[in-house]
Amino acid sequence: MNMDYHFYLNNKSVKNTVIALLSVNWPLSTNDIHKEVVKEQGIKISYQAVHKAIKQLVESGCLQIENKKYSINEEWVKEISEIVNQIKRSYKGKFHVSKTILNKEGNKFNVIIAKNGLLRDIMMEKTLVNYLKDLIPILKKEINPHNIFQKNEDEVLTYLLNIQKEHEFFIALINEKVIGGTVLEKKDESIRGDHKVWKLKHFALSEDIEKNTEKEIISEIENRLKKKSKSLKIQVNLSEKETRAIELFKRNNYKKEATLDNHYRINEKMFIYAKSINS
User: Fold this and answer.
1) Which residue of 2, 172, 183, 264 shows the fewest CB atoms closer than 10 Å?
2) How many domains does the chain have?
3) Rounded Cα gap, residues 108 and 88, in angstroms
4) DSSP helix/strand/coil, 198
């Protein structure tokens, strides 16, 4: 394996050193972290290399920034703890999807996140395939007509698995039953990485779920993306025929920013709805 020497010094990566430093002393500026990393490693390392490591840790949700100073994201710590517990359960033959987000009147709403094979490594590819197969009928019904979702199941499944290699796939379940999902696709970000633009691609929810549950799902998506940057914009492209989805996003304070004629199909309008969030 070829490894950038900046990220592997004395058998300890710069990222690990940064996290170790911030676990006992926080918040710290980039300059402070660089000084401590040099001191800790006992070897010269560039400011740029440390800055790059910090930026990647922020993008992955490990760190958070406030007033140009960094600290460990406590939500990330919780996620890591859940993953460790999940691995323990898996090796004991127990299956675990995620924390229960909503438990009302006996209904348990869960979310699984799939990206870059992580889900497959932990919960087996077969499990992910089964979830996606359950999602396909919802996509076919809610995003209709859509070229890719009018193909046979095997072709759609291959398409979804390829998306999962590049972007996070958000799948929602109630009582172990798939009720919808979307792709969290990063479209753009500022030079400093403190503002990101996200697109909810192929957003679809079953028509059988209640409005309060729909709101919880939107909220969970927003909360997940807020972990990646304190300033963000979320957009979703909807055909004029997706009236239920349009009303859903309008209820959750998404504003129509543009109308495109003949976009998906001739004589059909496509609307861009968006919401800016600054936490």
Assistant:
1) 2
2) 2
3) 22
4) strand
CATH of the domain at 40: 1.10.10.10
Do 155 and 63 lie in a common domain? Answer: no
For residues 196 and 186, give the distance between their C-alpha atoms in angstroms, rounded to a whole number. 7
Q: In whole angstroms, what separates CA 239 from the centre of its chain?
A: 23
Phi-psi region of 57 (alpha: psi -120 to 50; beta: other; left: phi over 0): alpha
Range of the domain at 59: 5-72
Residue 180's Cβ-count burial label (10 Å; 0-12, 13-18, 19+) is buried
Query: pLDDT tens-digit profile of 161-186?
Result: 888 878 888 888 887 788 999 999 99
Helix, strand, coil percentages in the chain from 3-state DSSP, rounded to 5: 45, 30, 30
Strands 231-239 vs 195-205: parallel, antiparallel or unpaired: parallel
Whole-prediction pTM value? 0.60
Q: Is residue 84 part of a domain?
A: no
3-state secondary structure of 151: coil
- Whether 31 and 112 share a structural domain: no
